[in-house]
Amino acid sequence: MDGFTLITFILWIAIIGWAIWELIQYFRRKNAASVVSKEEFKQNMRRSQIVDVRGKDEFDAGHILGARNIPYLQMKQRANELRKDQPIYLYDEKKALSGRAAIVLKKEGYKDLYILKGGYADWDGKIKRKKIV
């Protein structure tokens, strides 16, 4: 086997490994939370906890009215700030971080987890922005 064939073989193994990893993560996210439409999100948001998992700067630039900010990178440490007896609605810019946050919360024992389909980018409801002084 020459060097080129060996490198090609190693690259194919890496690509296949990465694809399997992504497939496993997809099913973990899917099993951790249900994806809901904007309409369903709006209907149930008053009786639930809304969590923006984006960073603080993005949250301050604009967020769904009534949401609290628990960035994904802090989710494991701050999960105890959420109540287990109420549904939790998660969102981020699209929905990639929300799925990861749902996996973390599910491991911590939370059950009623929902993710906003399309994330904040598709939100057309009331928002709040932090005033710049």
Please explain how this structure is put together.
This protein is of the alpha/beta class and 133 residues long. Helices cover 44% and strands 16% of the residues. The protein has five helices and seven strands. Helix 5 links the parallel strand 5 and strand 6.
Q: How many DSSP helices?
A: 5
Percent of residues in beta strands: 15-25%
- Rounded to an integer in angstroms, the radius of gyration calculated over CA atoms is 18 Å
Structural class: alpha/beta
Helical proportion, percent range: 40-55%
| Low-confidence spans | none
Q: How far apart are the termini?
A: 66 Å
Number of strands: 7
Based on Cα principal axes, name the global outline.
elongated
- Quaternary structure state of the chains depicted: single chain
* Spatial strand sequence of the major β-sheet: 1-6-5-2-4
Mean pLDDT, all residues: 88
Major sheet size, sense and barrel closure: 5 strands, parallel
Helix and strand run: HEHEHEEHEHEE
